[in-house]
């Protein structure tokens, strides 16, 4: 194998771990995650809906690049100089996404558009420069070329016409759902890995949870009060436990269709965790908008972690688990909404949120101890 040869599609049998270049590639997203959090913290008071819309835009745009590069690596990664350089170059526009956030507050979108176009152009180069020995590979590339191409045009038009929000939203929706048109092609290629993709999504979620831990440390360093940092830490612990106990492997089904929709549920999960983290500064000063944002983030987390099982395994136990998970989450979500309207204290509302999350956690533990663990040991 030459250091510069174009890769073939992999046979994905057996166990595969994330590579060092993938882990290094993830590091650049830490800056993007931190900047998105700071954006919400700084502008929540300026306009709640407008800030949340831009939060999803500024987070989803680089996340799509991460997802596409993750699937590319699962298919075509090789331990070569060529692959490492491809991934390192892709880190540049991801860094620009983080840099561009400073300018969006002043309605200056040039850096955002540049990072968007460069990242999509490089993704297309990566997907288009493989050895396409199968018609399914060529079909996949054509879909990506059309989808990313239209998205780049729309984002550029948004910048030129000052219709940025509607056009970039349409562009991101196209990119999120274009993969649906490649699923048949993926089924004609070797199966995606059983363990690598959950590991990659789990590692990305760990980065988001790490931002939550840093937020707790910051609140602790800025205040003599210990109760709020302690409560926020318990909240992060509960989110961690629920995700890695109820989502990451337990309900994962490694087919192209399931993996695609499972990744979409994961987008909602990490977005919810970022929203939760973005409330920490506001909760410290008892900002009502931060309490509302915490409610939205927790409800989204409950719904996405429970709903991920809908596209998971279809055996009777998994379906029963998913049904019971969603039923309990619906009941607790209603109680949480009622608590938001009745409780004025930040400490009491955060405490109620923690209780809700720990009830969900205990439900997952019950299924593991009572049903799944004995079955796994057979």
Describe the structure.
With 378 residues, this protein is an all-alpha fold. Helix content is 78%, strand content 0%. The model has no long low-confidence stretch (mean pLDDT 90).
| Helical percentage | over 70%
Q: What structural category do the secondary elements indicate? A: mainly alpha
Largest sheet: number of strands, sense, barrel closure: none
Q: Which value, in Å, is the CA radius of gyration?
A: 21 Å
Helices and strands in order:
Elements lengths: L19 H24 L4 H29 L4 H24 L5 H19 L6 H27 L2 H14 L5 H5 L8 H27 L4 H20 L9 H22 L2 H5 L3 H20 L8 H27 L3 H31 L2
State the gist of this model.
Helices cover 78% and strands 0% of the residues.
State the main characteristics.
mainly alpha, 14 helices, globular
């Amino acid at each position: 194998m030459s250091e510069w040869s174009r890769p073939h599609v992999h046979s994905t049998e057996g166990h595969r771990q994330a590579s060092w270049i993938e882990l290094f590639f993830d590091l650049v997203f830490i800056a993007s995650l931190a900047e998105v959090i700071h954006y919400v913290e700084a502008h929540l008071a300026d306009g709640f809906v407008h800030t949340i819309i831009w939060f999803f835009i500024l987070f989803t745009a680089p996340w799509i690049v991460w997802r596409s590069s993750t699937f590319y690596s699962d298919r075509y990664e090789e331990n070569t100089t060529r692959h490492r350089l491809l991934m390192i170059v892709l880190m540049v526009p991801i860094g620009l996404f983080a840099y561009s956030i400073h300018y969006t507050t002043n309605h200056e979108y040039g850096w955002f558009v540049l990072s968007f176009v460069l990242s999509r152009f490089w993704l297309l180069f990566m997907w288009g420069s493989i050895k396409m020995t199968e018609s399914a590979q060529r079909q996949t590339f054509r879909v990506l070329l059309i989808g990313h191409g239209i998205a780049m045009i729309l984002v550029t038009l948004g910048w030129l016409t000052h219709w940025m929000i509607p056009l970039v939203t349409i562009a991101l929706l196209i990119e999120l759902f274009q993969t649906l048109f490649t699923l048949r092609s993926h089924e004609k290629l070797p199966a995606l890995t059983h363990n690598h993709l959950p590991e990659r999504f789990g590692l990305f979620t760990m980065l988001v949870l790490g931002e939550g831990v840093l937020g707790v440390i910051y609140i602790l360093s800025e205040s003599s009060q210990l109760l709020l940092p302690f409560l926020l830490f318990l909240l992060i612990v509960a989110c961690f436990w629920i995700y890695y106990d109820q989502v990451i492997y337990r309900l994962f089904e490694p087919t192209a269709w399931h993996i695609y929709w499972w990744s979409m549920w994961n987008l909602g999960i990490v977005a919810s965790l970022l929203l939760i983290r973005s409330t920490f500064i506001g909760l410290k000063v008892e900002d009502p908008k931060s309490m509302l944002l915490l409610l939205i983030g927790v409800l989204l987390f409950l719904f996405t972690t429970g709903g991920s099982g809908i596209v998971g395994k279809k055996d009777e136990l998994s379906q029963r688990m998913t049904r019971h998970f969603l039923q309990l989450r619906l009941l607790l979500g209603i109680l949480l909404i009622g608590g938001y309207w009745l409780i004025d204290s930040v400490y009491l509302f955060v405490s109620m949120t923690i209780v809700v999350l720990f009830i969900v956690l205990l439900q997952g533990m019950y299924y593991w101890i009572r049903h799944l663990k004995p079955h796994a040991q057979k």
